[in-house]
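Kindly inspect this one:
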Amino acid sequence: MIGWIAIDILEQHLNKQTIRKHRKTLIIFRTDAIGDYVLFRNFLQEIKKADKFKAHRVILFGNIIWKDIAETYDKAFVDEFMWFKREDLTSDDRRLILLYYSYLLFREKAEFLINPIFSRENFFNFIILASKAKHRIAPIDDGANNPNQKINDQDQVFSQLLPSLDHCHFEFQRNQDFFDKLLNPQNQIKKPDLPVRGLYTKHYKNNYVVIFPGAGAAYRQWNYQNFATLALKIREKYQLDIIIAGSMQDSKIAADIAKIVQDGIEDYTGKTNLVKLIELIAHADLLVSNETSAVHMAVSTNTRFVCISNANHIGRFNPYPAHIYNQGTYVYPDQVDKMIRDAPRSLCEKYRIFSDLDINTISVEKVMKQVEKSMWKSLTVLTIYFLNQINK
């Protein structure tokens, strides 16, 4: 009750038409997931050097889940980080926490606030309005999280809405388009990139394949037995080690896979921060993953990947357009393969928000076929393979 009263008082204060002297400060408001940040982060350098903002202090208000990535790679482009915890929205103190975040942004007296998210969530609107930024800019929302929202509703929150590419464009392309319109002239970012290979050395002594069996939702997870069978096939054919990666929540799945495979397999789930995970993927011969942020990390470190997907968010987050990255392969249920050939636009429209296709209709043999194609492109793996054949 106290929290709501405090918010009401603050809202009344914010609605007063008082003269406010703004500072040369830009707040970038980014509260979504790890993969979203990986697809966005390279544009920070373009923001920092743009004529429009190069004299501004840059504050990144972000989801603490990707703090490791931002503070490791992006300090040169951000003057201050402010971290938000999504679990705060479900805590008993969420009203007071909302008030606290609102005050943090309000006190900055920012001239600009940019929210570059295309599928926004309405419960952040109060914080954005509370900033009292003179210019509050965002792309037109695609309605994925707010299907009944009208553009007029967005106009109440943002002072400028930039036209968006439609939802059948890949997310990185939408980011490019947004920042082209915002920064003018066109930015120079052509693909996601993390400068890992120049910063880190390989710590794991053998050649290896990373498998990433977790996903944000169960319907996007290929069965652990399938991953185990695939790992055995890779071990048998290429004699490469297998590293299982993921969060602590994936530990049970990882243990089940390791129990079946037994030899030549290491479980790293819950044992790496995001930077170490990126490093692990960067030095792998191949990543095999469900459709997760690990795939975007592979692209950003120029690592080959095979992604197993039930076509959830197809067109927007998968597959990568070849002109952005062509060293990855996606494996979908058979009916998706046919639609990709015959009706790609209809496929995107059907599954752009949610796919109910069973990911476990994808066979191990179908995935292994794509693994073999990827391996043939690796000189290191081919050398190991032929040496093993000679020694048999």
